[in-house]
Each structure stands twice: as C-alpha cells, then as structure tokens.
Amino acid sequence: MTEKSSLDCPEDRSWLGEGQSEAQLTSVSGPDGAETNDDRPAWDSKIQYVLAQVGFSVGLGNVWRFPYLCHQNGGGAFMLLYVFLLLIVGVPLFFMELAAGQSIRQGSIGVWKHISPKLAGIGYSSCMVCFYVALYYNVIIAWSLFYMGNSFQYPLPWQQCPIDVTTNDTVKECASSSPTSFFWFRKALNITNSIEESGEFNAIMTGCLLAAWSIVSLAMIKGIKSSAKVMYFSSVFPYVVLFIFLIRGLMLDGAIEGITYMFYPKLEIWGNVQVWRQAATQVFFALGLGYGSIIAYSSYNPVHNNCHRDALMVSGINFMTSVLASLVVFIVLGFRAKNIALRCVAKNLGLLNLMASSNDSSQHWWPWFNMTDPDSVSIPEYREWYSHYSSMVGPKITDCNLEEEMNKGVEGTGLAFIAFTEVMALFPASPFWSTLFFLMLLNLGLSTMFGTMQGILTPLMDNFSLLGRHRTLLTVSSCALGFIIGLLFTQRSGNYFVTMFDDYSATLPLVIVVIFETVSVAWVYGTDRFLDDIEVMLKWRPPVVYKYLWKYVCLLAMVGLLVASFLRMVFKRPTYTAWNQSTASEMTLEYPGWALAMIVMLILLASLPVPIGYIHSMLKNRQVRHSPSLEAGVGQELHRELYTKCSSTDQLDSNSHRAPTEEDGVHPRPAFLLMAGEHYRLLPQQEEEEEEEEEEQDTGL
Q1: Which of 39, 215, 220, 643 counts the highest number of beta carbons within 10 A?
Q2: pTM (two decimals)
C-alpha cells in the first residue's frame, strides 16, 4: 500500500478546517473493550436493516416509472443500458453513502460536517429535498387509501359510467373518455381544467391525507424501533402481491404479447443522448441517492457490518424488483391492449354485417372469415384482410392494431389509477384484486416514506441535542407540518402541483447534492483514506476500482446528468398535462409565470444550503483567526464543536480511550472513521498516554 501524506498542505487545511489535519478521532470503548454507543439506537437484526433499505429504495417508481421507460426506450436495450449505469455509477455511490453513514454513525448533516465543516450544507440540502418528496409522496399514499376504500364494493365504482339523473343518460364526460378516467379525474380528484384554477378543497382527499400522515407519524414515533417492525410487513407484502399478479397475469390472453414487447431490444436507442439521461436519472432515483436516508439507516449499523455486500445486495434486489414489476405491468398492458383490439374487431365486424344486409356480399373484397361470430376471428386474420381491402370499405371500418395499443404507454398515476383499474374491473372477483393492488401501492409508498422521514429526522436529532431529547414531539410536529403544507395538493388543482414537485423539486438539487458528496469523499477527504477506513471496518480492502469510479466516472456522470437536466429545463419550457372537462381529454399546457417562479424557488431553496454552509464556515473561521480575544475562547469552542461533540453531558472516562498504534496495524493518521458514533475526542498523533490524559483535562473531556 502506498504511504499517504498527512494532509499538511495549505490547500487541504483550507478545506478541512484548523486542527483536522493533525487530529485523529477515536471511539469510546465499553467495559468489555467493544466500541459502543449506548445513546444511539440500533437495528434488532440484519434482516430488519436490509428490509428497511430495500423498502426505502424500492418504491412506486419501480412499478410505474421503470416499466414506462423500458416501454418507451427500446425494451431490452434500455435494460442493458440501465444495468451498465447501475454497475459503474449506482452501486459505487450507494456503497459510498452506506460506508460514510456506518463509519461516522451520524445523519447526513453530521457525516459531511465531520469531513469538513464547510460541507455541512450538503446535509441540510438533503433534508430539504426529503421534505419536498415527503410532501407529495404522502398525497399518493392518500390516493391509494381512497381507491382501496372504494374497492370494497361490487361492481367496482369505476367499472361503468354513471347515469345523469337530469337527462337519464350516461354522463357526457364519462361517455367521451372511459369509466376509469372519469372516476380518477372527476370522482377522485374533481380536477380543474388548469393549474391556474385552484378550486376549493377536496374534502375526501383531505381526510385521506390526514389518515396517511397519521399512519406515518404512528409508525415513526419511536424511531427505527417502531418503523422497523412495520417494515416486516410493508417491505415484504408488495413482493407477495407482485408474484400473485405475475402468476395470475400469465394466465391472461395477451400476456405473451406483452412480455415479447417488453424484451424485444431496439439497440438504436443507445445513440440517443436523452435515453442515457433517462436511464441515469432512473438509476439515481431508484437507489435513493442523495436523500440522506441511506446514510441515516446505515448509521444504526454495527461498525463491522459488511456494507459492501449490502450495497451489492440492495442494488440487485432493487433491479430485480423493477424487472418483476415490469413483467407484471407488461402482462397487464398486453391483456388490456388485446381486449381493446378484440373489441375493435367485434365493432368493425358488426358494421360489416350491417353493410352486408344492404349490399351485395359477393364482392371479391368481402371477408372470408365468419363475420357473425367475432370470437372466431383472430386479430392477425382481420388485419390481413384490412391491409388488402381497407380502401374499398370506407372510413368507418378501422384498423385494429395490437402493437399500436401497446405503444400508448402510460406511467405514474395514469398507469396505477387508470390502466390498472381498468384491468382489475375485467378480472373475476374484481374487488379482491383491486384491494390487493392498492394495498400493495400503499405499502410501497409507506416503506419509502419511512426512509424519507428518517432522512429528515435523524440528521436533525444528531446535530441538535434539544431535538434529539424530544424525538416524539419532533416526529409529530414534522408530520403535522407536512399535513398543513400538503393541503396545497388537496385542492382541485392539487394533482398539477404533485406533478410539479415530482418533476422539478428534487431532480436538480439531488444531483447537486450527490456531486458535492462525491467531491467531498473523493477529492477533499481522499479516496485512499476513505478506503483505509472501510478496510478497518470490513477487515478487508475493497477493490481499487472504486477509487477511480468515485474520482472520475461517478463524478463525470453526475456532472453530465446535471448539465443535461438543466439544459433540458432551460430550452424546453416546463409543461404539464391537464384534463379538459368539456372535451374529456388530456392536453399539454405550459406553466404560467408564477408557477415557473415557484419551480425556481423550490430548486434554489433546496440547493442554497450548500454554498451558504461553505460561506458560513469561512466567515466563522475568519472571525476566530482575526480576533485574538476570541482565539482562546471561541476558537476552543469551535474546535470542540467540530471535533469533540458528545451525546452525553457526562465526562468520558479517559481510560476508555486509546489511540491506534503500530502494534494495532493502523498507522496514526487523520481518520474519517468514528467507530462508536457520537462519543469521540481529539487526540494528537504522536503523544504519549500520559499527555493524552492531560489533554482531556484541558479540553474538559
């Protein structure tokens, strides 16, 4: 191993702050010599931790975003591209966050502040983005609760169009669209025609949102001790449902067509820059990078936990879940497309029968199949006849293209609340399947929501002792604040704000956060030192390839993603999809000026903590450096704040501390590793044991 310098150059000092280059952080040892932190909660078991990480990273995006991207971007070719980016960008960054959280045993604010006080803003940005996501994510959970509540009736309320009591006819908006679209836009959301028409509050959705926040609050009220128990169900249940749907779906007519469409590779998409951008974005969000939740969860791990294996395992489970969900989605969409195409054939055959009764049916172009029995006519047979004689039958007879129906890809809420509900209504015992599906969505959303809230609460409790002492009050207050702000999404125009937050509030800030995380580990702290610390934890050294992935590949990929996302936002004016009640159809509208200002404000609020934290630390250091009267007082307090924070007011026993020695096989050097979490102190590199005890007394430790 190459010997490293001791960070004594002025440039390194300017980044890390005074004293860091000459100090080593060591842990508090328990009575048995093992490193402990009695104040910090811990996972009851490894399976509990894995379920929490999987539950957070596997969310609604795996079910309704990944399948859509495969659908739109070349099927199997997109999957290969996704796996490539997952291996060279996703897994290394995921491993980096796991290792940082586990070694320092702090939330996102404490981790980056520990590397350098100038980087504390990274953690605050992560908290802001987590709060944004929590606001709108819980609205989706509220929608799932509403649909699940409406699934306990037969027939399902979205199975047929309602009757207008005044005209005794089918409601026009429903007749012009479909029963599922009408139920979603009119009954569930009661949506306005644009974001500029706010409308009144939707009382039912407000109640569902209150219920959603109450569930989150109750599950999080005792920290990971309570949320982890819920994880046993919320993380596992979606897999049970997906496998049930997969088995049931394979029995459906059209399943094979759907799977074929999914895996058929279109390799030409690899030349499209936008496809690379979409694949990188999906890798980024699928793993939950930058939220701080990965760091928070791993900070409750034992020090010697194999976080490298965890990174590979969770990333693999995440990808396989996306593939499983895509199989289910494409099977269901194949079944739906085939049903639509068969209804089209039956309708056209009915029109041909009418034509036969008024015209000579002995014409040479007349169909050779039995038109009186539509069930006996296959789609390929009908299309073969139509391709030869379409010009002779007039415009009323149309083509029935199965692939064209499959091409009408749906994502997000359109997939879950329109396409899937339409298919559920066709199943025998439809209320059972509908309840199962929305219970799955509810659990997917909750497990991700728990991780998101942990990304907010853990850093705050770690860095503000007052909040740490009042965990319950902080949790309940955060959920109450989330509900109050979330009322924005329960207006009739609320769905448009959900779309705005989903598209713009997190993307750029999260990419910026991960860029600074990578810079701080790879260039500020140093990849060699980081790998050394991981070696101490794991008892073996990770492959050197991580050094180059962190320093160059991941960083360049994130910068490229940031530039591509920013340019797309600048050159393509942000738009949203609105529902027009009079035409009963969707249309694309541009955001008004005030909405664009709101988008910019959301991005700035989440991104500004990074430069503000850097400037604040610079000014604080300059004030100490240029104030002789403060040098001994404030300087010492600043020094203690940055490097000797303790979670207990009790003085630490000096005999429980020991600096690493040559006999331990660890060279004295500045260390990132905080083997026991919050209890640590400043030790000179080359002092004797007696001088260390004197130093403890001098510093008040």
Answers
A1: 220
A2: 0.78
